[in-house]
Amino acid sequence: xxxxxxxxxxxxxxxxxxxxxxxxxxxxxxxxxxxxxxxxxxxxxxxxxxxxxxxxxxxxxxxxxxxxxxxxxxxxxxxxxxxxxxxxxxxxxxxxxxxxxxxxxxxxxxxxxxxxxxxxxxxxxxxxxxxxxxxxxxxxxxxxxxxxxxxxxxxxxxxxxxxxxxxxxxxxxxxxxxxxxxxxxxxxxxxxxxxxxxxxxxxxxxxxxxxxxxxxxxxxxxxxxxxxxxxxxxxxxxxxxxxxxxxxxxxxxxxxxxxxxxxxxxxxxxxxxxxxxxxxxxxxxxxxxxxxxxxxxxxxxxxxxxxxxxxxxxxxxxxxxxxxxxxxxxxxxxxxxxxxxxxxxxxxxxxxxxxxxxxxxxxxxxxxxxxxxxxxxxxxxxxxxxxxxxxxxxxxxxxxxxxxxxxxxxxxxxxxxxxxxxxxxxxxxxxx
Length: 432
Prior knowledge:
By secondary structure, the protein is an alpha/beta fold. The protein has helices at residues 5-11, 22-28, 49-60, 91-105, 125-128, 133-139, 146-150, 153-159, 169-172, 174-189, 201-214, 252-260, 264-273, 279-291, 297-310, 313-327, 332-337, 340-346, 357-362, 366-373, 380-388; strands spanning 32-37, 64-69, 120-123, 191-197, 220-224, 237-238, 241-242, 352-355, 392-394, 397-398, 416-421, 425-431. The chain is built from 21 helices and twelve strands.
């Protein structure tokens, strides 16, 4: 093998549980391994990234990754870590979600390689759709005791203590269905390893138990820790919800900003987990960052690596340029290039005022606009003084004449004007 995959996960902080013999198996020969993803939406979010990066590192180490999309299990819902039963999706919705997720996965793992470790995408609906309930009960249900299933943490938490809200029979069968996925892939794809988040350990080991009972074949398991923030709160959740990989749900600018704004301690962990940078380079980056934390070198490199990987180099550069609007030396040209959605995201938190478009079409004297139509200045005198002192800008260009009327020609995206007082004080005026 090119590299020791388990050691790669270990130094990156991506290894939680591992079944005895797993590392030896991976060192012995090219091994096929899979991660399951429930297609409950038509985009992955960054909560999925750890599992996806496991597949990426697996392929980089010379092994064969399989991404399993749970078209069948997604119709039921995994109870692990859930406090309530999820809504069931239609077959049509699931098919759409599966197609969308495949496109996203192609950015991480190589499905088109001519090497024997080319990635594969499978959908468990393909082998479950014709499996009758009676056959499943006879062939699989009889092999695992209820006592064994009840002992799993994901089940226990729902019945007592943490959630205490019970569980339907449908959800209770989830671990058998996931276990059967492993049986099927072991038999048809020679897949010997299942990987996932640590909350999946119970479901994964049910699969190894079934394989042992059905075929006696070797089967292994490993999990990565659930990623959290340094303060213990959930990773990837913001006030506006999940950070999605699809630009239609989370723009590249907002995606980039998420990584730029992580705490120092989190950046040190995330750069190991969510990039393919090597150990020496990461250690060097951390040492350099610690010399001058205020420069946020670690966050900048993390944001660059992940944004380029998920979106593109062009999207990354556009996000950097957009973030310079408020926090750097952006030009008027850069401001005019921003699309409205990104512009409004950049302006989030900037004081805003509304003026009449009709008045603007006729032209409004700058001092009237700044001190009467809005409250950017408390008085016309103060506004005049700052304009004459060359300390006031409109749309990133100095406003030098307090007399020339401001008209709709000044509007950005045909709707906004950005004013800047001094270096850091911005105001957004919207024409309606």
